[in-house]
Amino acid sequence: MPEVPSDIEIAQAAKLKPIKEVAAAVGLTEDDLDYYGRFKAKIHLDVLQRLQDRPNGKYIDVTAITPTPLGEGKTVTTIGLSQGLGYIGKKVFTCIRQPSMGPTFGIKGGAAGGGYSQVVPMEDFNLHLTGDIHAVGVAHNLLAAAIDARIMHETALSDNGLAKALCPDGVTYTESQLMRFQKVGVEPKPLAQLTPEEKAKVFRLNIDPYGIMWNRVVDVSDRAIRNIVMGLGTEDDGRPRQGGYDITVASEIMAILALVDGYKGLADLRARLGRVVWGTNKKGEPLTAEDLHVAGAMAVLLKDAIMPNLMQTLEGTPAFVHAGPFANIAQGNNSIIADQIALKLADYVVTESGFGADCGMEKFMDIKCRYSGLIPNCVVIVASVRALKMHGGGPRVVAGKPLDAAYKQENFDLLKKGLPNLVQHVENARKFGVPVVVAVNTFTTDTPAELEMVREAAIKAGAEDSVVSEVWAKGGAGGAKLAEAVVKACEKPSQFKFLYPDDWSIKQKIDYICREIYRADGADYTAEAEAKIALFTKYGFDKLPMCMAKTHLSFTHDAAIKGAPRGWRMPIRDVRASVGAGFLYPLCGQMRTMPGLPSRPAFVDVDLDLATGKVKGLF
């Protein structure tokens, strides 16, 4: 096989179409676009109203087996499959997430695909794009600042002083304030007519500093600020308390952006922001962004971020890049809005769920499809021989270090022992009633006999087909056979169903996911988790779907346990609420929401070529 240039060399050598040409090819006009330079644009949501009577295209979700720390080519396959569908003459749209710059500058590198299956411009994709992540971070941190400001002012001011500060004219109330009156059962009337008790009910939140669940965020991997003490200094610097930072894509605001219904648009965004629960009062009652009167300002910060970003693949097919939640701690899928628009513009829409099928795909089905009403026609599960060998007991795989020789030589024993991981993922996808195709992302060290062993196991597990994918080296041409298999699978009837109903209890939902998807014998709960379950049930949050927060490197809570283990139980350390996004997230074992940098971060290779002004070193 001829040597393939680096990803960034391929991307920078590509002949890109002006984005207006990409848009025009799928029926979008200049009135539908807000341009961000020549090669990317935002799409107005009113496109959906114009096209609402047009039938949807076929809906394909690309997921994967349990990955190694290297990843196994899921995004490459997503983009390559789209290019492959274009190669065989289909009208196609790709819908993927915007990557966090934390991993881009850490270990993983970028997420624009690789080789000859990329979304371009690659540098824009992996860096600021159109500023959506920045908007999410500012909206999130505005709420964080509002929380600490309110604690300080409630301590310093009397009930009357607080009421006058929040309602200076004493007569006219904002919509958020009227909602607060309703929440606490006080009739809205001029400030002068409110009793001291009524003022205290309406304007004093009595925030429990130990009940605050809202960290600040930044889109940089920085372990040193996971846990901090803030408010140090003078009395004017706020009240000291313990807090911390998460990475921006772990924010509930990012999850909200991904789950907004495009047909409801800004109204749905605004309502979800108002429902965000960030802490409790001293009675243990939940407090929301609406209680702080900050949800409206947060919506203003996100009014442009709600529009999906249009880009293109190396072969000129259109791609939406929108939202970027992690799949091990959030729902791990791109936005509903992007998919809704794409399904009106193309015959085939290829989207991608983060990490393995036990993470992103399960959440795609049980959370994203639940809120969007969209039904997938096919699931593509990406596997690789080297990952299956690791699950069979092969040597540890470490990002940034050379692969052990065991992964570069034919080894039927290791591969056979690892195949149960693929089988379990195929069986899990079939539980949702959707046809499955396995895509084997091949490397030069794979042998025909090894690839045939994977194919036989996939078909036996219930897959419609198992196809070797060569999209990294050959682009769309290397994905043509996979595309044909997917088209064939999409013609089969989808008997889609959710894993569980809304009205099950929190524990019923958690236990069922653990047994059916992870194959645990059940779940065990800490006292803290039990208390949260009781609290959330009391306030009606038990009807929400579950977004399991667990490692992506194992079916279990322990990243070191590979394969498809049996005879174990899932520990539920805590349960937290993302009420605005619309899910609860149980924490399975120890989960970090702020990554750290490795000893040799990827950023050491990133720089500017001063002669050309181009970025170099991204991968």
Word description of this protein:
The protein is an alpha/beta fold. The chain folds into 3 domains: 311 residues, 3-Layer(aba) Sandwich (Rossmann fold), CATH 3.40.50.300; 169 residues, 2-Layer Sandwich (Domain 2, N(10)-formyltetrahydrofolate synthetase), CATH 3.30.1510.10; 83 residues, Formyltetrahydrofolate synthetase, domain 3 (Roll). The protein is built from 22 helices and 23 strands. Strands 1, 2, 3, 4, 5, 6, 13, 14, 15, 16, 17 and 18 form a 12-stranded mixed β-sheet that branches. Strand 1 and strand 2 form a beta hairpin. Helix 8 packs across helix 10. The radius of gyration is 25 Å and the shape is globular. The two termini are 21 Å apart.
CATH architecture heading of the largest domain: 3-Layer(aba) Sandwich
What's the total number of strands? 23
Q: Compute the number of helices.
A: 22
Q: What does the average pLDDT come to?
A: 94
Brief overview, please?
The chain is an alpha/beta fold and 619 residues long.
